[in-house]
Amino acid sequence: MIFSILLLMELSVANVNEKICDPTPPVLNNWVIHLWELDLTHVPGSPDLSCLTASEQQQITRIRLPHRRRVKAWSRVMLRQLLGSYLTLPADEVCLWFGPHQRPHLDHRVHADTLNFNVTHSHQKIFQAVARTPLLGVDIERHRPLQHQARTLQRCCAPSERQHLAALDTSAFDTDFFRLWTAKEALLKAAGGSIFHAPSAIELNLASRPMHLIQAGDHLIQSHQWQLIEFDPGSSEDETLSGCLAVADGKWQVVRLPYLPADRQV
Question: Which regions in the chain score pLDDT beneath 50?
Fold first, then answer.
C-alpha cells in the first residue's frame, strides 16, 4: 500500500472514534466521514507524479510559485492514492473528471461506487473528506488580517452576521469571521458552487456551536437540509486555523485519519 494509516487523532467534534487502524484498505460505511489530513511541514520533498495523468502533471508544472506547486502536487497524489485504496485499484487507474474551477470528481461511469470526496488546503495543511453521499464539502482557512474589511463583510456576510461581528473585539472577530467563512465555503462546495456564488445570501447562526443554517437565498443550497461540523485543523502558536465540514443532514460520524506518504518522494 502506498501510504500508512497510523493512530487516529482525536477530533474536537462529536461522534469521533479513537482506535488503531491496520494498513488495509479502509472500510467506509454509510453515515461515516473519513477526514484525512497531511501536514507538509513534516514531509520533505515533492511527490512522484507518475500516478497522475499527463494533463494533471502539466497543470501542476504550470503553477509558478514553488510552494503552491508543491501543495497541489501532494494534494492530487494524496487524492489518487486514497481513492485507489477505497476502490482497491492502483492510483493511476482511478478515473476522474474535472468540473468548474477544475474541481475533481470520481467518474461514476467507470467506477460503480457511491464514493464522494472534497479537498481543501491552507498553507502547509491538506484535508480530504471522503464519504458515501453526493453532498459533501470541506474547507480550512488560516486566520489573517482582512484586506478591505468593510467590502469583504458586505460581500460575504448577511446583515445579521455583520451585526454579530461588529459587537466583537479583534480576537473574537477573527475567530467568528473565519468560522463563518469556512462554513459558507464548505456549504457552497458541497452544493457544487464556489465562494463566489453569493455568500452573503447564506445566513448562519454564529452564536450556536455548531453553527446552523438560518436561510440560503442561493439556489444551490436552499433545496437541501444541511449539517455543519466544525473541527480544529491543528492550530499552533504560529497560526490559527478554522475548519468546517458541510454534509446532508443526518447522524454522521467523523473519523479523522492522518495520511503518511511512504516511498513516493523525489
Answer: 1-23, 263-266
Structure confidence at residue 7 (pLDDT): 28
- The confidence score (pLDDT) of residue 100 equals 78
> 32, exposed or middle or buried, with CB in 10 Å at 0-12, 13-18, 19+?
middle
Backbone angles phi, psi at 246, to 5 degrees: -120, 130
pLDDT tens sequence across 196-215: 667 898 999 998 888 999 98
> Taking a C-beta distance cutoff of 8 angstroms, is the pair 118, 243 a contact?
no
Q: Which three cell numbers stand for residue 85?
A: 485504496
- Give start and end residues of each alpha helix (H) in 91-239: 149-156, 159-166, 170-190
Q: What angle do CA 75, 78, 79 make, to 5 degrees?
A: 85
Strand partners, 129: 35, 118
Q: What is the DSSP string of 12-57?
A: SSSS-------SSPPP--TTEEEEEEEEGGG--S-B--TTS-HHHH
Q: What is the pLDDT of residue 210?
A: 83
Torsional class of 217: left (φ above 0), alpha (ψ -120 to 50), beta (otherwise): alpha
- Select from 109, 105, 141 the least CA-distant residue to 122: 141
Domains and CATH numbers, the chain: 11-19+27-132+252-261 (3.90.470.20), 139-248 (3.90.470.20)
What are the φ/ψ torsions at residue 32 (nearest 5 degrees)? -125, 135
Q: What is the pLDDT of residues 247-260, one digit of tens each?
A: 999 999 999 999 98
Q: What angle do CA 28, 30, 34 make, to 5 degrees?
A: 40
